[in-house]
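HOLO CASE FILE
Compound: protoporphyrin IX containing FE
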Amino acid sequence: MLGSSPWFIDACRRRFGDVVTFRTLFDDRFVMVFDPALVKELFQGPGEQLRAGEANAMLGPVVGQRSVLLLDGSEHLRHRRLLLPPFHGARMQAFVEAMRRSADLEIDSWPVGEPFSLLPSMQSLTLRVIMQAVFGYEPGPAEEDLRRRVRAMVEPLARPRSLALLAALPMLIGRGEPALNDRFASARRAVDEVLFAEIARRRSLGDEALSERDDVFSALLLARDDDGERLSDQEVRDELMTLLLAGHETTATGLAWCFDLVLHSPAVHSRALRREDAYLDAVVKEALRIRPVIPAVGRVVRERPFRLGEYVIPPGIEINPSIRLMHRREDVYPDAGAFRPERFLGEDPPDTYAWIPFGGGLRRCLGASFALMEMRIVLARVLERAALRAAHPELAKVQFRAITLAPRDGVVVVQDRGFVSSSGEDVGS
Ligand code: HEM
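Model generated. Tokens follow.
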């Protein structure tokens, strides 16, 4: 099921139809859905009956129990409302410069004439962007220190076969058992130390100073619930950790795939070099279609049975729309295996419920517009400044890494000639 190609799930879909029950080592029973109309019913269903927080429980030891990812019902809505404003429209324009600068720092560090892997560079880039946009850090030693600590915590989880580690963490945490657990716990402590110290430092600045800042960190410290209560330090920490983790590994992986696809498609590459926003947007969307970063999302049925088309799903069962297979439906995406950004350019772009790299409904990814904008800006900047080509004739193999579907070799590329400096001067090779 977690192999590089979804042939097994696809075979099940062809044999059993658009709603299929599976049983695996990790789940006693869950139902996969492959049909846009049924996915629409699911995404529009009530949040307290269809619980995404419960489906995300495995992330608890990493992001914390008070993370928006783990909450359901009214608590989820309250946290989501607190986090949403900076991720919308005009407010996001403030992040454009941080995104471009972060791309420049990475491009400046790339070798010329030697193969190198793009994924680690994209991870530093996207993490730096989150830390500036969400936390209000400027590049420098404090930002670098936190970035190093976050990567040290994420790396063991972002390896192949780490799903087993993630699944085992809730059982291991607190038992003082294997070395693996100790290593994860101490890496997490190293991040927490910095976050809690920064929470204390900012609280000490007072409300007036905080309200003058426009980062999400300060907004979380100022937020009050209906009873006038503030978020506790632990709640603020859990949301910061959520944004750090949900916001960077995913976007970095999406970007690495985007470059892999563009560099293997001469027609797309040459048109993308013109750097028209509408076309680059379509490139990013098509990349997220053909290489979705997250393979599926989940909703656990509670309280009463949920009617899904002609089926009745009992409480306790998780329903999983398969993003990976939905994006390969030939009836929605003719010649679905081909990388064709034009699909997203015409009058009739794919339906909201057939293109779901960011999930949907009440739980749709909070950073979707942020991620799409960041991917477009980074793509444009790299095309402008660096002459990259793929190091291998084949596209990278897809590898499942606990949560994401990542390129196995991280997308190896070569920069042919010297880069154009960020001020526009050609630096030569
Ligand atoms: C290409 C990049 C990204 C991808 C593919 C992605 C994908 C997803 C998916 C599939 C979900 C679950 C949606 C559902 O259950 O229906 C999600 C949730 C979430 N994402 Fe993203 N994401 C990306 C970038 C970001 C960024 C940049 C941020 C923040 C800065 C972010 C923050 C979140 C949060 C907070 C949630 C939880 C929303 C909730 O439960 O209400 N993500 N994301």
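CASE NOTES: Residues 84 and 395 are 36 Å apart (CA to CA). The longest helix spans residues 233-263.
CLOSED: yes
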